[in-house]
Each structure stands twice: as C-alpha cells, then as structure tokens.
Amino acid sequence: MSVKTAENTLDIFEAFAELGRPATLDELSEATGIPSPECAELLHCLEERGYLVPPRGEGPVYPTGRLMQVASEITANDPVTPGVLMQMDALRDELDETVVLGTLRGARVIYLHVSPSRQPVRYAPGAGTSRPAHANSIGRAILAAVSPERRAAAMKRMRFQALTPDTPANAEALEAIIIEGADRGWAENIGESDSDLAAVACPVVVNGMVLGLSVGGPRHRIVDAPPERIAESLARACARIEETIRQAAREEAEQSAD
C-alpha cells in the first residue's frame, strides 16, 4: 500500500468525523478531494475488511464498531499509562490552562495527549496535532534534554519558517534559546508560533522516552501567571509522572515475580 493510499484512508475516517453521519461515495470524494474511482476502491476495501457498512443495507456508508474495537485495543496498550493522564488533568485543574504531552519526530512535535482547559477562551489543539519544533515549547524542552547529536540532526531538518515576527530565524538563534532554557530548567514559547499564544514546557521521561509536557494558553494569561510559576508547577507534575511510571514498573515486576 502506498503512502498516498494510507493518507486517503485516514482522510476518509476524518471526513466521517467531520460529517457526523453516513455518507455517499460522492460526498466522501468531495470532502476528501480523492477522485471518485480511487475513493470507490477504498470504500470497497474498507467494507470487505469490516470497517464500513451501509446502515440501511444499501446507500450511504458509515464506520462500524470494528474501528472502535481496534482503537480500544491500541489504547489499552498505550505506553502513556492512565496515571500519567491523571497527572495531566491535575495540572490542568491547578493552573486552569491546557496541558499537552508531546514527542519530537524529526523537525516536528506531535501531540500525544491533550488535557484542555475548561476556560471559554483557551488553547485547544487535538491529539495528533503536529507543530514545527523550532517554534514550540515542547520541542525546545526535548531538544534541551537529548544528546547534542540528536539535537543537531533535528535542527538540520528544520526550515525555520517565520510564523510570527518573534520566531527564531536560524539554527544559531534556536540553539541560544535552547541553551537558555536548559540552564533555567524549562522552555517557553511567547508568541513565536502564534502571536496570541504562549506556552511553558519541561522535559519528562516516560517509559524511557524523552517527551515534553507543556502548559499553554492565551499569551496575556501565560505572561501574567507568570511563566516562572507555571514552570514550578510543571516541574512538580513531571516529577510525579516519572514516579508514577516507576511505581507501575515496580508493581509489574512484583506481579511477574509472583
């Protein structure tokens, strides 16, 4: 299966999420931009695999429970334990801002889990959101915690797109920002990816992976907090998360020994 076919398949499922109802071939082709013949082949394949079915026996199709079943089985083995998600929710409740756990993939940050603020005006990304690492607090926190070789490899892949007037323009500028953050123990992004947003992040080790945990929201609220106070709460949360992971590992080892 080609990469394009994989992208088209994901586009189809995301189209169902946006439409919120059964859809015809023509509707899905229009929503995804997939040519009708290719879209028809994909729908036929998904029907044969049990992922789609026409709820009324014919006509528009809709995803079956098989998709949820597979997703549930994947989630059950998620390396980010429920205890980690509980700590994210606790931090969200303490600061009343959105908390994000992310990983670095190449030159981009991928959001793994999001605990959204309950405030009406908030930063509201979704899990799976991708952001350029050079203008992201999680990316900077991770880059400060990994080896110089991995940091250099990631920075070579960055295009340093200017997202706002404050976005670092080159590797030298970003390196200085990363070193400054490493010295104080936390990273920040104040209007560098979006002029109206800001975030503070710390690195956290989860099952051997160096991830980043951030608190983000409207720029004025983060700046007024101030970032130093957010960083203190973040550091405590990261320590609790790492202890949660260690405790889970100890319990698993004890069960295996029994």
From TrEMBL:
<dbReference type="InterPro" id="IPR036390">
    <property type="entry name" value="WH_DNA-bd_sf"/>
</dbReference>
<keyword id="KW-0238">DNA-binding</keyword>
<dbReference type="InterPro" id="IPR029016">
    <property type="entry name" value="GAF-like_dom_sf"/>
</dbReference>
<dbReference type="GO" id="GO:0003700">
    <property type="term" value="F:DNA-binding transcription factor activity"/>
</dbReference>
<dbReference type="InterPro" id="IPR036388">
    <property type="entry name" value="WH-like_DNA-bd_sf"/>
</dbReference>
<keyword id="KW-0804">Transcription</keyword>
<dbReference type="GO" id="GO:0003677">
    <property type="term" value="F:DNA binding"/>
</dbReference>
<dbReference type="Pfam" id="PF01614">
    <property type="entry name" value="IclR_C"/>
</dbReference>
<dbReference type="InterPro" id="IPR005471">
    <property type="entry name" value="Tscrpt_reg_IclR_N"/>
</dbReference>
<dbReference type="InterPro" id="IPR050707">
    <property type="entry name" value="HTH_MetabolicPath_Reg"/>
</dbReference>
<dbReference type="GO" id="GO:0045892">
    <property type="term" value="P:negative regulation of DNA-templated transcription"/>
</dbReference>
<dbReference type="InterPro" id="IPR014757">
    <property type="entry name" value="Tscrpt_reg_IclR_C"/>
</dbReference>
<protein>
    <submittedName>
        <fullName>Uncharacterized protein</fullName>
    </submittedName>
</protein>
<dbReference type="Pfam" id="PF09339">
    <property type="entry name" value="HTH_IclR"/>
</dbReference>
<keyword id="KW-0805">Transcription regulation</keyword>
